[in-house]
Design a protein that fits this description.
This protein has 373 residues and is an alpha/beta fold. The protein contains twelve helices and twelve strands. It has a seven-stranded mixed sheet, with helices on both faces. Strands 9-10-12 form a three-stranded antiparallel sheet. It binds pyridoxal-5'-phosphate (PLP).
């Protein structure tokens, strides 16, 4: 079996999650909006999961809206706020995921000023530049990721929330990569909106959530039934919701163990990498997710390296899965001011709860063999 080191792209469904989902796929159950007993059972399952997912990030169950994943949650946050407001300005992190970047940029056609918030060489927000942007005129929404999917760099979103609020803006946080890997507290961080996704934490794909605090004015992306307080019409995917709920509960219960194990493996990997000539580790001086490591081997193309590693039995990524195959260097590294040629060499390793020290050692041996060839 190839060694899977691409958990930021997606994770498989934990068998405990699958067990919880199965009755809602093949068993007799109703539409969660139906009033009969089958409907009520489905509703109960949806509400239990709502409490489980909200608990993972210190939110109230009533603040949670189910979506089809992180992409839809980011779209609902940004377009939903824009649709409910008079056009002013929206700011987003320059290293944010395309689901934030592209959504924010799409508002330009509707008269919004859209600006990227710069980061420094380590991938951390350039705070003086951010404050200057906020001071330049009215801003309705700031969108900033909690942790980067490529480098793992963690942003101080509590600081961003304080600054955004002082400027009269709301803060949306893409916590898709952070939730379940590091402590994330929607309320304590002062966030107004937060996106989550199930398939990064051993839940099923195609289910996510947007947390929306009470004061935020938001319009739905589409019209339909009154589900999710009218913010997301459509019959609920009960099995996926149940799976997300259990995955969130497990992530919360096992967070410390998973994080400690991932960090030990990452440090082992980093120590080994530093012995290879021509290695650069991105965001190394910044706070990072315990499971994530992005590096370049100078003189190598990231995608070619990925394919060589694949042949040797290791599944890694050359950046974000969404950007792969485009032949363009990662916008995250370019945003950090990394030269294009170096950025083109980027490889991302993202560890999961079942990786072992033997696997990371084998990975280092394979990489050293490639570098020596
Ligand atoms: C930071 C971040 N935001 C959003 C998404 C999109 O989430 P989903 O795949 O659930 O649409 C991803 C997925 O890679 C991500 O890493």
């Amino acid at each position: 079996m190839p060694v899977y080191l691409d958990h930021n792209a997606t994770t498989w469904v934990d068998p405990r999650v699958l067990d919880a989902m199965l009755p809602y796929l093949s068993g007799p159950y109703g539409n969660a909006s139906s009033l009969h007993r089958y409907g009520r059972a489905a509703r109960d399952a949806v509400e239990t999961a709502r409490a489980q997912v909200a608990a993972l990030v210190g939110a109230q169950p009533g603040e949670l809206v189910w979506t089809s994943g992180g992409t839809e949650a980011n779209n609902l946050a940004i377009k939903g706020v824009a649709d409910a407001a008079v056009a002013t300005r929206v700011l987003y992190g320059i290293t944010d995921h395309p689901a934030v970047m592209e959504t924010a940029e799409s508002l330009q056609a509707r008269g919004w000023g859209v600006e990227a918030v710069a980061v420094d060489h380590e991938g951390v927000v350039d705070w003086p530049a951010f404050e200057a942007q906020l001071a330049r005129g009215p801003v309705r929404l700031v969108s900033l990721m909690r942790a980067n999917n490529e480098t793992g760099v963690i942003q101080d979103v509590a600081r961003a929330a304080r600054l955004a609020h002082a400027a009269g803006a709301w803060l949306h946080v893409d916590a898709v990569q952070a939730a379940g890997k590091i402590p994330v507290d929607f309320t304590a961080l002062g966030c107004d909106l937060m996106s989550l996704s199930s398939h990064k934490i051993y839940g099923p794909k195609g289910i996510g959530a947007l947390l929306v605090s009470a004061e935020v004015e938001l319009l739905p992306l589409h019209h339909g039934g009154a589900q999710e307080r009218g913010l997301r019409g459509g019959t609920e995917n009960v099995a996926a919701i149940v799976g997300f709920g259990v995955a969130a509960e497990l992530a919360q219960a096992e967070l410390d163990t998973r994080a400690a194990q991932a960090l030990a493996l990452r440090e082992r990997l980093e120590a080994g990498l530093r012995n290879i000539r021509g290695i650069e580790i991105f965001g190394a001086a910044a706070p990072r997710l315990p499971n994530t490591l992005q590096f370049a081997l100078h003189g190598y193309d990231g995608e070619a390296l990925l394919m060589q590693l694949d042949r040797k039995g290791f599944a890694v990524s050359s950046g974000s899965a969404c950007a792969s195959g485009k032949g363009e260097p990662s916008h995250v590294l370019i945003g950090m001011g990394i030269p294009r040629e170096t950025a083109k060499g980027a490889v991302r390793v993202s560890l999961g709860k079942d990786n072992t020290a033997a696997e990371t050692d084998q990975f280092l041996t394979a990489l050293k063999a490639i570098a020596a060839a």
